Amino acid sequence: MKEETHFYIAIIGFIMLIASSISSIFFQYSYFYVFFCLSFVLVLDYFDFKLRKKSLISFFMKKTHHSAVMFFIIAATIFAVFVDLVYGVILFKIWSWPSYTTINWIILYTLINFFFIMLVYETYMITRHFLSKMFIEKHYSKQKIVNKNHFKTTIILTSLIFLFLPLAYFFLFGEAHGGFVMIFPFLGLWLICDSILYLHNQTPIIQKLIQKDGTTIAGVLITMIFLVLTHEFVNKFSSEWVYNSIPFMQLQIGGVPIMVVVGWIPLVLFCISFLDLTKTLEKDVFKKHMK
């Protein structure tokens, strides 16, 4: 994509971002989120391109990357339906989207889901770019993981346990207090992606966290804070989504339940790892099969 085209798309995205935010804040429009997420992607993608000369939109638009696009669409949809819809909405009723009709549910688990994952990744990469220029990462050790096979097996098993733990809980205890186990499937999704990255000889986020990589730790936390401040704040006015049975609901930060804030951390980790995985599979698997 040409830089001039990228710039004009970003301008359109910025206008859409302002308009969708206004529609929620001042007009309580409870269908703002698809436009909000799309516009965020367009704006952040341009800044990422200017800073790192890399663009997710350009990556997905390449004709040779159609397999990566299909993987992203199919896997992201399955993950979202399984964890958000089945666990969060149907089984435990932790959150809901009160104004949604069938078409809105379809948009949620396709377009909004895709845009959301992309904007989280772009936010993290931009944040990490600035942090990498600071002294923070120089103060942490880079010790290697001694037993790689044991580490690989551990994260694979842990991810599967975490992913299906809420299902086991539901069959044993029902939906009561299900919010206490909902953080585990998000951790499970993240670790599944990390384990596959590890199988492809990549350095997953969990390894960077274990090695106390300051840029990664700070990048994840800053990304989480930024997303909570923007997404949760704008949604407060229109309540496109609402929280019903979050643990410690009375403990809030700026009107947002503290457990929701905590829950954003594994969500951010998953989005980053999932797109890293998509790029890795394009390079190691899909590209080779096309030859």
**Beta fraction:** under 5%
Element order: H for helix, E for strand: HHHHEHHHHHEEEH
Uncertain parts = 137-143
Number of helices: 10
How many individual domains? Answer: 1
What sort of overall outline do the alpha carbons produce when their principal axes are compared? globular
Structural category: mainly alpha
What does this structure look like?
With 291 residues, the chain is mainly alpha-helical. It has one domain (64-290). It contains ten helices and four strands. The chain has helices spanning 3-25, 33-52, 56-61, 66-91, 102-131, 148-173, 183-199, 205-210, 214-238, 258-290; strands at 95-96, 242-243, 252-253, 256-257. The strands form two sheets. It has a two-stranded antiparallel sheet. A two-stranded antiparallel ribbon has the order 3-4. Helix 2 runs parallel beside helix 5 (102-131). The longest helix has 33 residues, at 258-290. The protein is globular. It starts with a helix and ends with a helix.
Task: Considering the chains and any ligands shown, give keywords for the structure.
single chain; 291 residues; mainly alpha; 10 helices; globular
Give the structure's gist in a few sentences.
This protein is mainly α.
